[in-house]
């Protein structure tokens, strides 16, 4: 037999299930005597039997959802065993569901990301809630909180499951509302019903449907020229209401800008800062108009343009420029005052007062500037020039503008004066005096005359020549004796001089330059021949041959100091070289005769004796006073004879004793005095000239 009971789940322990004794129609005592036992098919003993009363009770908590899950009917099977006799009864207990579980969502919150350009009617499933109860106690419906964009649609499956989904009823606009917060409620059919909620956060994903917008349609800035690199010009500001890459803006210079402008300005693509990266020059451009574009990073990109007008303020940063329109670097020294040397054009790239230029040259130079008209000057000579005084000028032309502070530029014009043959050569001395020893070698340089010409090049190339001086003996042509080197001025001897023939020469040396016409000058040269001891004394008396001796006869009675004879000699030299002395070098009887040192007189020194020889040989040497001295010897033989010329000898001796100097000696002394006088007068005249 089989007995069925129905009980709700979640009964407390000891709750009544059924009365076995009554349902089986058996006495309770008989069941107790029959050793009644309850056996369960499951591992858990959910029920127990009270053998004294025959009642089945709940012994453990029963959870229908745990036992049977979503099965609509849930049964627990028991076996009832009785002994004497053995009998088995099958008991089936149906566990009835109660609404003990609310619907449960997987989480408390769910997030959706929906593209803002999603089409209307788009559906977005929501994870359904789960309710382990069955029947009417399980999930029955969903409710969506009020909103403007979404409706709720619940899809029912064949298995009874209900799946909620959001339906887009109105277009989204992220820029108006980026997030939507909804509440979805799941409710079962219990009584009372149970429910649970889930919060739905909808993030509207951006679409690149908005272009960047600058806060101003155009920007203006003003910069000083020559602003340093990195100077901030302006900071642009563009916004894009899109988000993410669609709202991420990059700045750049438009391709419409010139390459030159791109080299001067640069823009930071992140910050929009425009900075100076090149040289700002007012003289090249006073205004720059920069085209800038802002692009977002969406796909496709959207962009916006604006213009930036940059005005450049001029500063005095350009020094004046000096341009030579015409210039001659060489100028003749005889150029008259007012001669134009250069035509100068000046300019300044700055503007206003800073571009006005004034020029000047130093006042201590023989040049001046004449302003022809605006920006043009002429450089003129102001005085006469002299190349020999100043041959070269560096004329500095100074150009200054009127800026504050002023800038200036200095241009040096090198001007060389071309020589004109306006200076005659000048000798270093008005006259030259030269002492030349006779017997000089041929070609020896007697004197070097030197002249200078302050002119240059060909005008200063000098040539020397010898001219005969006025008042000179016509027979003494200086060119017979002398020659001069035409360029060095060295006067050389063409022949050896002989003092005994020529004692003095006077001539002019003329110097001429190479100019056209040539200029000349002269100087007087005095050549004094200095005597050398080159002539030995010559014995004029007594004359004798080379190998013979002159004989003189005296009487044995000749008394001392009777003059026996006189040796007479002359020397063609002059001065000390002509001073003669006589010496008795050898004699037969040295003590018998003597020779006067200066006069050459030979006298007997003692009376002759019978023992003396009858013939006496005397060797007399005549010597001059030169260095080294030259001498001549003469041999005399004195014969002692009874018939010798005693009276003649005595009278000559007396005449010699009472007379003056010999005639030849007198001539020599007079000549020496005259030569000394002429020399002293010449030296005195030379000294006066020098002073």
From TrEMBL:
It comes from the Eukaryota. This is Protocadherin gamma-C3. Pfam families: Cadherin, Cadherin_2. The chain crosses the membrane at residues 664-688. InterPro entries: Cadherin-like_dom, Cadherin-like_sf, Cadherin_CS, Cadherin_N, Protocadherin/Cadherin-CA. Gene3D superfamilies: Cadherins. SUPFAM superfamilies: Cadherin-like. GO terms for cellular component: plasma membrane. Keywords: Calcium, Cell adhesion, Cell membrane, Glycoprotein, Membrane, Repeat, Signal, Transmembrane, Transmembrane helix. It is found in: Cell membrane. It is a single-pass type I membrane protein. Residues 6-105, 129-214, 215-322, 323-427, 428-539, 546-664 form the Cadherin domain. One of its GO terms (molecular function) is calcium ion binding.
